[in-house]
Design goal:
This protein is mainly alpha-helical. Helix content is 59%, strand content 7%. Helix 2 (18-37) runs antiparallel to helix 4 (77-97).
């Protein structure tokens, strides 16, 4: 299902256009950066995180909830990247073929991640207690900054 847009292009386009191939390769590179390299970088666009909530759990371990960078924009902004990637894979297939089959992965991943963020919020609320409530108050958006 992940490659439904690519499969749609392959099955319905008689001449393989290099621009389609380049767009798919570009999407793969962006996906690799966003999910493999960017999460391991300690800073957001080269900036040191300025805001966080530092606290001690009931078990006595020190924890920090970041409120700057990506996680200062939305609580589950990493899900947005996966949804954008699904749309980026679907769009070339849909534009060339007009087949709704190209959007299967995007619809699948959106339908999985939207309810999951509710579950994640509940788990974090139980784990972090009032600190998570404070984080939710300071970062009100769930997935899409300034929208949802």
């Amino acid at each position: 299902m992940f490659v439904s847009g690519c499969l749609c292009l392959h099955l319905h386009v008689s001449s393989r256009d290099t621009s389609c191939l380049l767009s798919i390769c570009g999407n793969v590179c962006i996906h690799r950066y966003y999910f493999k390299i960017a999460p391991s970088e300690p800073y957001f666009l080269g900036c040191v995180p300025q805001r966080s909530i530092d606290f001690t759990t009931k078990q006595g371990s020190r924890r920090r909830i970041l409120m700057s960078g990506w996680w200062g924009l939305a609580r589950h902004v990493n899900y947005l990247g996966e949804m954008i990637q699904g749309a980026a894979f679907a769009l070339p297939g849909y534009l060339v073929t007009s087949s709704p089959q190209a959007w299967l992965y995007f619809l699948f991943i959106t339908s999985i991640l939207t309810p999951r963020q509710h579950d994640d919020d509940e788990l974090c609320r139980r784990k972090y207690g009032p600190m998570w409530e404070e984080y939710m108050r300071r970062v009100p958006y769930r997935i899409i900054p300034w929208v949802y």
